[in-house]
Amino acid sequence: PPLKRPAPFPGGKTRPDKPDKDVVTDLACDGAAVSSEQSKSLIEASPSPEPVAVAGNPPVCAESATAFRWRLRDGGEWLRLIHDWHLVPRLVKTVAERSKDAWLSEKEIHILREVLVSFLRSRGLKCSAAVEPGQPLALELWEGLFRLCGDVDQQLPSLLREGVPTGILRTIPPSGVWRETEVPERPNLELHTFDTPRGSAREDCRTACELVEEDVKAGFAVWLDGGLAEAKRQFGDNCAAGRLGVVKKAGSAPRVIGDSSISNANHLCRISEKVEMPSLEDVSQFLSRRQGVRWIAFLMDISKAHKRVKVAPKERGFSLFAVMEPGGRRRWVVYNTCHFGCSWAAYWWSRVAVGFIRLGHRVLWHGHFLVIYVDDSLSLFPASSAPIMACLQAVLACALGLPLSWHKMDLGSPVKWIGWCLRLDGVPVATLPDEKAARLCSVLRQLASSTKCCSRKEIESFLGWLKPWLSVFFHMLRKPTLRFLQLDRRQLAELEDLLQTDLAVKADAVLSDARKGWKLLECSGHEARPASWQDLLRWKNGMAWLKFGDWTCDSVKPCAEEKQVAGFFLQLIEARVRVQLVELEQKAIVAAADAFADAHEAGLGGWWLPAGSPLEVGQIRWFSFKVQLADLPSWFRPQRQSGQP
Predict the structure, then answer these.
(1) DSSP states of 507-548 as a string?
(2) Each residue of 204-231: pLDDT tens digit?
(3) Domain positions in the chain
(4) Is the dihedral of CA 177, 181, 183, 184 positive or negative?
(5) Span 199-283+291-348 CATH architecture
(6) pTM over 0.70, yes/no
(7) Which residues, at least 6 apart from 189, have a Cβ–Cβ distance to it below 8 Å?
(8) How far, in Å, CA of 641 to CA of 473, rounded?
(9) Which helix (H) or strand (E) holds 230?
(10) Which is nearest to 479 in space by CA: 570, 397, 551?
């Protein structure tokens, strides 16, 4: 059973004190108060005493409004507009049709913002609904709401207005939103500029150009007609050019990713706090504490979230990229906003996202759950009020300027969120989505039974879906394909000129099949060593055998151990076991357990007294389990370090 958690509010209280009448509690009609002390919410839910409405340390809790209701001076104008504009049936229709058409018109959004402006001005906060160029957020509204609520991150709107730092020129200081972390010393690395994109962008340069042009038209980036020279005139030494790539995934539109690691920009970025993300466990904790309520899920997706945050003008030179046109012409582009592929993008978007989540708690009433994973928010609302609460959340997002992907909104059960299918009807459970399970089983079945080579791309595509014992598959992904060549003395002389000091082939051979990127592993059955590999050759009929490792090959052959691991996962996934999301609290019992281990065996044992049994030795139940190291498959055993027995 879960341990009793401490009270979340001062004085051991489980509910906040009634706030002063001048403190905003809601932007709707009736609302649950969330004290300013609680507003230090995080993106991920940590163990908290009350419903995990949003993650945090301290946690933010969304309590039922029955204990404290206050009506705003505007009389709940947003709720009136939701009723007058028939937004609930419009939302239901949008979700049902998966329509890309905007749920709200620009005129309606303007009216919603003016209502919010009027409300903030009534509280003595001067602001407007203006949206400054270069980003979509109504920053004065964010500023006013943050000030009114005493938000932990009140400096965020001004940073977004001016342009955020990258953490390269100076470390990004802690905001107070997440836990502060120790910042490692900045490495002594040079910034690089690459004048060619990734292979994926060269092979399909037309798509790459079209995607970059879309970003330019959206205001995320600008073409540099003067090329790299113009960039250096603008940004001086603050220049780094990574490499653009095009990612294509079945069922999704292609997207462009800018690799800023290869230019060392990511390696030089320093951020003094670590973003935390929610997980399925947080959903389970909330549902376990709120049993007996029928919940409805609401999903929202922020469109092109990372690119909505503009970078400080003097640091935009760290986001340079070369693009090749179909005719072979090279063009240069610089991103004015955070791009997908830079280390600072996830951090800054997360600060924006969690700021929206904190404000969301001020608008929603009744008990609810609200988190966001990158750009995918998940809300759990009571079934009786879910449609209106979903409308309020979406209205808040639109008023603040968050661009939503309308066709990705979902309301109901089941829903798909961060790779899980959440089924809230009846006993809440989570399962792998059918298409994900089918994909996993297809690859694992091939690995477990195939005697042929498997595609490295296939292996790489499913690695992120499996967590335990991934070392086996990473080893498989990175191990070389073996190449055997029988060469004569003339071919070997050529090879000797092509080998680097690490025995890697630096260019394709002309007289043999040796290729660039191969590495010499063995000579006539003996391990090749840089200084003496020629001495290991054994000649027969003027020929000698050499074994090379080819890491560039598109396929790799699974060994018996890798097949065994694949079979284990295949059996596990094919069972389609449901993850129970509600933990039932049992009566406390007297029990104890302990474990032991040495180099050869490990064990677990303990005892317990069944609930209601008298405290007598004869009533005690016990268990014991041992396992020998020799009983475990080799892939399950820990790798021994050098020098260990």
Answers:
(1) S--SSSS--TT-EEEEETTEE--TTTGGGG---BTTBEEEEE
(2) 999 999 999 999 999 999 999 999 999 9
(3) 10-162+349-373+385-405, 199-283+291-348, 434-476+558-580, 481-552, 590-636
(4) negative
(5) Roll (3.10)
(6) yes
(7) 264, 267, 268
(8) 20
(9) helix 227-235
(10) 551
